[in-house]
Amino acid sequence: MLGIENLPKLAGPFLKTERKGPAAMIQQFEQDHGGGMAKDLAKNRRVVMPSWTEHEEIKELQKSYSRNKVRTTKYTFLSFIPKNLFEQLHRFANLYFIFLAALNFVPIVNAFQPEISIIPIVFVMSITAVKDLWEDQRRRKSDQKVNNRLCDVYDRKQKRYVERRWAEVCVGDLVRLCCNEIIPADMVLLHSSDPNGVCHIETANLDGETNLKQRQVVRDLPQGSEFVPENYSSHIECENPNNDLRRFRGFMEHPGKVRVGLHSENLLLRSCTVRNTETVIGIVVYAGHETKAMQNNSGPRYKRSKLERRLNMDVLWCVILLLLMCLIAAVGHGFWLSGLQNPIYMIPDDTHPALAAFYMFWTMIIVLQVLIPISLYVSIEIVKLGQIYFIQNDLDLYNPVLDTGVQCRALNITEDLGQIQFLFSDKTGTLTENRMLFRRCTVAGTEYPHHENGPFTSKHTPLILWCAVVPDPQLQAKLNTLSSAMRSPPRQQAAEISHILDFFLALTVCNTVVVSSPTQPRHVQMPVVRTPLRSLEEMKAMFQKLSLPRFPSSLSQNTDTPTSLTKKLFTRGRSKLLYEAESPDEAALVQAAKAYGCTLLGRSPEQVLVVVPGTGPLSIPLLHVLPFHSARKRMSVVVRHPLTGEVVVYTKGADNVIMELAEAAEDGFSREVMERTQRNLDQYAREGLRTLCVAKKVLEEQEYEAWLKRHEYAETSIENREELLLESAERLETNLTLLGATGIVDRLQEEVPETIEALQEAGIKVWVLTGDKQETAINIAFACKLLRPTDHILMETCEARLHELQHEIRQVTKEGVSEDDSSDCVLVIDGRTLDYTLQKELQGSFLELTCCCRSVICCRSTPLQKSQVVRLVRDKLKVMTLAIGDGANDVSMIQMADVGIGISGQEGMQAVMSSDFAISRFKFLRKLILVHGHWCYTRLANMILYFFYKNVMYVNLLFWYQFFCGFSGSTMTNSWVLIFFNLLFTSVPPIIYGVLDKDVSGETLLDLPDLYKSGQNSQAYLPSTFWMNILDAFYQSLVCFFIPYFAYTGSDIGVFSFGSPINGSALLIILLHQLIESRTVTWIHTAILLFSALFYYAFVLLFSLTCVTCNSPTNPLGIETKMMSDPLYYLVCGLTTVLALLPRILCRTFCNTICPSDLVRAQKMERLSAQDYSTSLRQWKENKAAQRLSSRHVPQNLSVNADMPHLTDCIAEAGAVLS
């Protein structure tokens, strides 16, 4: 942690004691370091003054900043062709085919007409260019619409606000916005029509969150009915543009040399919408592409899938195969020329056979270029778009309540969904609803069970919760003594009531909840209240009952309260209030406090308006808010108590953290309270409740002043601000007095147990990474069937225990437990132990242990630990990982996994914005992975293999012909058919195949999760599968070439006439081969196959009838018509097709009959009647269960109770966790 003595050094050169204006600073820097320091200053930070400033240096500096015009297009009219060509030339495949096309223009090595050779690459690159141009045109129209929006900008010459286009707004402009207007640039808030200096914005356009965010005017700026721009003479220094939406560091220096820290609460972000505020005025600090919205506009996510990496390797094998074939042809050509003795049919040439062989090598590269599938990459993109379309339009994955379906944010890893081996899940909001209900609490060591809590209902988004909390009678009775007119309670009871009052006051004010009203749009404007509604004498009497200190006399100055204000406040108190919270926990706690009469009425940056039992509304001065931080695991507010005048710190946070901070403040009473509270916390955790502790601290004025001075220093720093603020908060949150703890229930989402059970049956190892207590996580794991009553829980609490468990698990493994889902062991590990196991020397032991467990539960884990665990498993075990979460704390884990899935839940949209796929409920994961994942992987894998097969098969026909033409590079096919065969005639069917084929129906895949294991094991695309397809292509090419060869041996047909039946046979073989491989044959498949065949024959017939010089120097006129009029043509084509496909048909029939795979068995089951299908399904599951049961030999010495004696209670109560 940074020491306070280092603050001046860390804060940077601009936080020195001597305060100077921006111009003076620049001059001083230029004197010290020479000229041009304005540029150096701009490199370090940004200086912003009103655009009409007289300082020439500042003017020049602000001119260098980006203007507000945005351009998301990639091209201009002049740059489109060169820039698009340059981008496409970055693809190796395009470079390869351009090289071959250029090579064909070299006379000595050309294979056919040079003009024809450029057709494939021109065709593919033209399609890509048209697609890019269409997308760019859409972006251009969007940019024009945005840039032409209007806003009010202050014009000093005209002394008024004038309308300007967004594109004309500059840094330093003062912009005025009204309610429901969109913010044109990032602005520091200078004025709000709200008397409390508050503005509310909706960030849905930025991050998808619809709950309102509160922003506030910079401190110490005058707030009146009107803002006079001419009077604004402060300047701003802030950090340079960045993409962190939740961070803004800088300070504003007023004319009196007083500096005020600037935070994200002072910044209005571009693209957000002003809500519930009549007028706001701000000064632009970032414009155009420097705004945080544009800095985060990175477009669709791109990842390389596992299948794509495998594909690239096989393309290299095809390159090697191509070079080998070309080398054979070149050597053969050289030997053939060497064996000739002045043949009369050749033009005399002095070229040496070795040099001719070298030339022939390049000629054969041109002839056999189709071996590298140029259209494969384009086809893969089209197929993935089709797969995404069907995923996003699946009604089973649609949530009618939220009106959302699946969002596919990463466009190129759909097939990875079918190969997942490890799944890492958050708990709260992912497995559970993240809609909290206050269930129990303990105050001053006394537990209040709240047995009569009513039903829990909620609205969905924004997070506006109506929680029916029925107060506990005993706790309610104690609070009622505050408003009773009876005699004062005994001193011991008064102390307890004081604890209770502080407890509920902490729940009411220690939060960031925004108050809303059904009769007003989403927000209640908080009236200014400076005094309680009751008389001070009544207040004094009430606190005298509690034997609390009397009021300081200074508070007796403002005793009058306007009658109208009193009436207004009491009217509001009786109306319904809605609480909008960024966290469901906060909303539940505020609702619980409201049920006991401690009602939050409104909030402003300076005060909180609450109702306390026995009083009217109280205005509590809000001095500081120390927001929640994942490192501190708590939040605090510093207030001035409205009755005692003391400075009080209220803190709430994780129980283990608060209990540690309260230990130093122990006395006899506090020690007893802490012991009883800890016992209650353990009980809450066993019941699966989310626990939270509440504490307070009373500060002396001198102590507060000393802390405030250092805290303000940290607030105004630009460099290292987060570290300094964190240290400042930790310095304050010490020696706390424990008030109590709460237990909140978070119900499981529907169908979570069934989903987890199905995923585990599919062979996916499910890990839960949560920040909750160990007992809570285990209890929820039982409820969602991640843990079974028969499971053996291994508790890892230290390094020694890790090695002990590792030894025990080795003994288990020796007795026959396989390292898969058949294991009965589940590892539970906490955050502290996880830190040890993530060290390099222990990683291997940890992974060895986890591989022998069916599941792992990581408790008390931080966001950083979550991402470290995912990376460790992904990199060390070389497995496919998926991470799923719903909150900002899950973002690092989601981005680290191979596939990241965000849930659009109650914690905003940060996880969704960082994910590859977004769903609204955890149950949708079941079909997304088991059905769509399986289909996408199987379809794409089979399509890629089919592409390799058809290209190798057709190219080999040309290769075999070289043995009969002296390896001269000649072809028996005219160049037009040669080019179009793979590019047009046979390219559409595999695309349809890749989008629509279903090897097994979705219902069967859900009924039999075991079928998913075929994708995990890459059974559809193994190296052996690839080479079997290549060998089959070689065999089919031999049949396709030599049957016509022997059929026409001795005849006088020409070369192209010989090639006609070969091309016809090849087309039929390739199309029927796909029909054999297809598991689904619909009218679409049939129509496309027929269209491809008819398209080929229509083209060659038209070509034969019309083209005289299309294939110079040869003449293809009449060849096809003559060949097709001969019955031998059809006999050859039919016999060739049957003999070529017969081995594949026989092999598939034999394998599916003798040793059918699970997929084949499932396909057979689908053909049965409904009754027989149900019987077969039940028998299948019984057999699988018996197989898993027979592999378990877990010894009984792995006892659960050894480490966790109370775990039996968890098991017993697992069924009642969420009742």
Automatic annotation (TrEMBL):
Keyword Kinase annotated: no
Principal EC category: translocase
E.C. code: 7.6.2.1
GO cellular component, one term: plasma membrane
Pfam families for the chain: Cation_ATPase (PF13246), PhoLip_ATPase_C (PF16212), PhoLip_ATPase_N (PF16209)
Main location: membrane
A GO BP annotation: phospholipid translocation
Domain P-type ATPase C-terminal: 912-1156
Record's subcellular location: Endomembrane system; Endoplasmic reticulum membrane; Membrane
UniProt similarity note: Belongs to the cation transport ATPase (P-type) (TC 3.A.3) family. Type IV subfamily.
Official protein name in the record: Phospholipid-transporting ATPase
